[in-house]
Design goal:
A hairpin with a 6-residue loop joins strand 1 and strand 2. The chain folds into 2 domains: 301 residues, Orthogonal Bundle (2-methylcitrate dehydratase PrpD), CATH 1.10.4100.10; 125 residues, 2-methylcitrate dehydratase PrpD (60s Ribosomal Protein L30, Chain: A, 2-Layer Sandwich), CATH 3.30.1330. Helices cover 49% and strands 9% of the residues. The chain has 19 helices and 8 strands. It is of the alpha+beta class. Strands 6-5-7-8 form a 4-stranded mixed β-sheet. A two-stranded antiparallel ribbon has the order 1-2. The radius of gyration is 22 Å and the shape is globular. The longest helix is centred in the C-terminal third of the chain and has 29 residues.
């Protein structure tokens, strides 16, 4: 294996629960809890239903649980279906440095691997911390996105390594798992360009699926190309040379720096919604003449940089549209799943507010990003007055974190409509004490009390 692959593999082999910082353990529990709540919230989405029905074609007694169903299915299909439910509403956590994405996409694969590997809670939490460290260090290492490659590129490697850890793969097998994950599965950034499709909510889940399958292939004796990153036609040839290395002397801690979302929209619109909500009580909708949004370059590019963001035809595009989510925030005082119904997208008041909205890059804000995620909204009223709201960090940002009570509130709001109050409290309790669980399938019990889908 090449030296970059060897560095990642050796890092995984040195990982131990007892060496994890307490902050990383607690962050792993919190991200697991947040992710499972997102699964419950996305359970009834049409794409989730389609993914679960697809996975349900491959039942096996030796597989992994399809959450919300009595079935066990092929582990890679469980990773895909559970990962789609996790991601489809765009409520899962986020990390952004040179590249960005949703590291919790890996959790669906880690859960499947932990189940087929008959692992305990300590192993599960360690694997989550490993997956986040690999994923986020990939974001730190290189700007894959500007080269046309999507977040599953580092997600598939992270999932393969975390899965391999849970399956007890040796050094050579882990090296092959990385190669078998990366070489066949380079994901294009086309997923997030133009009018967004349902694949936007499944691309990360597919990365988890491919990562699990790569580790299973390596376990079964398959070998991968020997130099997937540094070799000729490897990753370096595709994107350019960069350093992606982890030191065994530095235990996983990047998981503590990921951002948790409050609203089911692209992360780069979170601050804009908070800014709009901060001044909503000071304006009357019928008096609004103009809305000016000033923010950093990444938010402009991703959420206002194409014509589709100004006339969203799908929910996937609308939750990545700055003018749309700001208009919805002013009208409704909140953003939730109902904000993205097709009739909501076409509401005359929304269209009117979007028509009077402009979006601008503020160079000072761009210089502050990604350490800050700033946005300023200025509303001009019919009487000539202006009202302004500005936010440096949305709630849930690394530097403005949610409290445990606020996390619980999010979980309750998402899981209780699915499973009821008793099951929600059971989920919170078992995940908060996941390090004491001797069998990871106990974590699925709150879902199993409400199994409704074959």
């Amino acid at each position: 294996m090449d030296s970059t692959t060897a560095s990642l593999v050796d890092y995984v082999l040195e990982a131990r629960f007892d060496a994890l910082p307490e902050a990383s353990i607690e962050a792993s529990k919190t991200r697991l809890l947040d992710s499972l709540a997102c699964v419950a919230a996305g359970f009834h989405h049409p794409i989730s239903i389609a993914a679960c029905r697809l996975a349900g074609r491959y039942p096996t007694d030796r597989g992994a649980s399809l959450l919300g169903s009595p079935l066990k299915v092929a582990p890679e299909m469980a990773a895909f279906a559970n990962g789609t439910m996790l991601r489809v509403l765009d409520l899962s956590d986020m990390y952004r440095t040179k590249s960005g994405g949703h590291p919790s996409d890996t959790i669906a694969g880690v859960l499947a691997a932990a189940e087929v590997g008959a692992c305990d809670g300590r192993s599960l939490l360690t694997a989550i911390a490993i997956a986040y460290e690999v994923y986020c260090s990939g974001c730190d290492a290189f700007d894959f996105n500007s080269k046309g490659w999507d977040q599953p590129v580092y997600g598939v490697v992270a999932t393969a390594l975390a899965t391999g850890y849970l399956l007890g793969l040796g050094r050579e097998q882990l090296g092959h798992a990385v190669s078998l994950a990366l070489v066949p599965n380079m994901a294009m950034y086309q997923t997030r360009h133009g009018e967004l499709s349902s694949w936007k909510g499944s691309a990360g889940a597919n990365g988890a699926r491919n990562g699990v399958f790569a580790a299973l292939l390596a376990q079964a004796g398959f070998t991968g190309p020997e130099a997937p990153i540094e070799g000729k036609y490897g990753l370096w040839d595709a994107v350019g040379r960069f350093e992606w290395r982890l030191l065994a002397s530095q235990p996983p801690q990047r998981i503590t720096r990921t951002h948790i979302k409050c609203f089911p929209i692209c992360y780069h619109g979170q601050s804009a919604v908070w800014a709009a909500l901060s001044i909503r009580d000071r304006v009357q909708i019928e008096q609004i003449k103009a809305i000016r949004i000033d923010t950093h370059r990444t938010a402009v590019d991703l959420m206002a940089g194409s014509s589709s963001r100004w006339a969203p035809a799908t929910a996937e595009t609308a939750d990545h549209s700055l003018p749309y989510v700001v208009a919805r925030a002013f009208l409704d005082g909140e953003i939730n799943e109902e904000s993205f119904r097709l009739d909501a997208l076409r509401h005359p008041q929304v269209l009117s507010l979007m028509a009077c909205t402009t979006v601008h890059e503020d160079e000072k804000m761009s210089a502050m990003f990604p350490d800050y995620s700033p946005c300023r909204i200025t509303v001009s009223l019919a009487d000539g007055a202006q009202v302004q709201g500005e936010v440096k960090h949305p709630k849930g940002h690394e530097q403005y974190p949610m409290t445990p009570e606020e996390i619980d509130h999010k979980v309750i709001s998402l899981f209780e409509p699915y499973g009821g109050r008793e099951q929600t409290r059971a989920l919170i309790e078992i995940v908060r004490h996941a390090d004491q669980v001797d069998d990871v399938t106990r974590i699925f019990v709150p879902f199993r009390k409400n199994e409704v889908r074959p």
